[in-house]
Design a protein that fits this description.
Helix content: 25-40%
Bound molecules: tetrahydrodeoxyuridine
Structural class: alpha+beta
Radius of gyration: 14 Å
Number of strands: 5
Number of helices: 4
Largest sheet: 5 strands, mixed
Distance between the termini: 37 Å
Length: 136
Amino acid sequence: MNDRELIEAAARARKMSYSPYSGFAVGAALLCEDGSVFTGCNIENSAFSPTNCAERTAFFKAVSEGRRDFAKIAVVGGRADLATPEYCCPPCGVCRQVMKEFCKPDFEIIMAKSGDEYKIMTLSELLPASFDKREV
Ligand code: THU
């Protein structure tokens, strides 16, 4: 699967977003090293803190299905009333820490408005000097 296809999968997942409180819809598509793809969307809650981000939805689906090796993730996020986001939405800090648990420093995060407009950063760029108890 190429980057454009992964972004398109994230954009499709974004349509499943349950975000009545923020009005901000996010979709993610996680590519595993075996070629399988797990998608996710943000799922909000009236109590707010139970809200789950799109990226973590994708990771938790994948890990719960036995995957541990990941190649890259595409993220598409923006105002729910806009079909195409206004900017390339980066993952939140909590999601970066979840990525850190399972991914190597060169894991790629594709932040996309569309299949034509996106930027790519590695996990180590987005989460430098990160906590990892295995390094202590
Ligand atoms: N959100 C994500 O799904 N991923 C992120 O990395 C950032 C934030 C969601 C959470 C909430 O439902 C909405 O975007 C607004 O913060």
